[in-house]
């Protein structure tokens, strides 16, 4: 397993978005992160390749911190840290 980014964090919650196409993963991430505490990390599992660009744009627009993405067996694992309100 090789990570392309620093994994010095722990994930607090995982969101399963297998089989969902754009924009559903982003909508689900937006809903899920609203219920999380400031600074918590959400891992999202997605099979939609569009998540690679969409998550960066969504984080930029919302102020949440994009921590990185890992591709493994056609599944994209995306990590986002909830911003302070």
């Amino acid at each position: 397993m090789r990570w392309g980014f620093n994994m010095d964090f722990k994930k607090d919650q995982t969101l399963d978005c297998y089989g969902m196409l754009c924009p559903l993963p982003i909508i689900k991430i937006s809903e899920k992160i609203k219920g999380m505490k400031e600074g918590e990390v959400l891992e999202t599992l997605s099979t939609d390749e569009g998540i690679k660009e969409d998550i960066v744009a969504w984080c930029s627009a919302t102020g949440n911190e994009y921590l990185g993405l890992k591709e493994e067996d056609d599944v994209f694992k995306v990590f986002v840290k909830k911003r302070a309100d």
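Strands lie at 13-17, 41-46, 65-72, 75-81. The helical segments are 24-34, 51-62.
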